[in-house]
Amino acid sequence: MFYYLLKYVVLGPLLRLLFRPRIEGLEHVPETGAAIVAGNHLSFSDHFLMPAVLKRRITFLAKAEYFTGPGIKGRLTAAFFRSAGQIPVDRSGKEAGQAAIREGLGVLGKGELLGIYPEGTRSHDGRLYKGKVGVAVMALRAGVPVVPCAMIGTFEAQPPGTVVPRLRPVAIRFGEPLDFSRYAGMENEKAVLRAVTDEIMYAILSLSGQEYVDRYAADAKAQAAAAEAARERRFRRLPLS
Q1: 61-111: per-residue pLDDT in tens?
Q2: Contact 221, 133 (CB under 8 A)
């Protein structure tokens, strides 16, 4: 109930007013039945903009940190994400990937839409990074189509570290569903999973027009953070003139 209150009364109309999203290819999202919507991830706003424009309810796998924050703010954030249809997934440890897959398959098993960001985390520089194969595992095990989606302009509207979004129009593009039924029963083949994931990422790339980086986003983020920390240490050691 609260999901639809947010979508149609509170958050949805506000997001449409602020961002004036241009929506393309919405007809490619199946009206019924299970499907995965796989998109790029440029901004915190992505979590809310895509659900706001879809006709159907969509459930995302969200990082557990959104549900475990301290204090009143943490509890309110957790309540909001749960009400918005987000499922917490612990991304640490060896079982993190399997837990996400189990949760995702549960959503698809109920004939619902599942939202996934194959990059695994937000892009820190606006580029598109290598996809993780979890999306392929779920698509093949559930036997469902994958609808590629591209968020365009959300990085500029709310770049990393920005709390209040900038008022500017964005675009949301949905591509034709990708059918991977030819790989049925091959969800344990690493080469097949990589090929399926790369096909999904290429479809997203074709829609978004981003620069592609053949590295995992988390690794690139860590390297960028380490380089920034090294620069700060060197700066602090510089003699005062």
Answers
A1: 877 776 777 777 667 666 666 766 677 776 665 566 788 899 899 999 999
A2: no
> In angstroms, what CA-CA distances link 14 with 9, 144, 149, 153, 200?
9, 32, 22, 17, 31
Q: Degrees (nearest 5) of the Cα angle 136, 120, 10? A: 105
Beta strands 58-63; 146-152: pairing state: unpaired
- What own/partner pairs with CB < 8 Å and gap ≥ 24 does 5-13 have? 6/83, 6/84, 7/51, 7/52, 7/57, 11/48, 11/52, 11/84, 12/52
Beta bridge pairs of residue 172: 23, 151
**Other CB atoms within 10 A of residue 224 CB:** 12
Tokens of 13: 């109309």
**Could you report the per-residue pLDDT of 123-144, keeping only the tens digit for each?**
999 999 999 999 999 999 999 9
Beta bridge partners of 171: 22, 152
H/E run at residue 37 = strand 35-39
3-state secondary structure of 23: strand
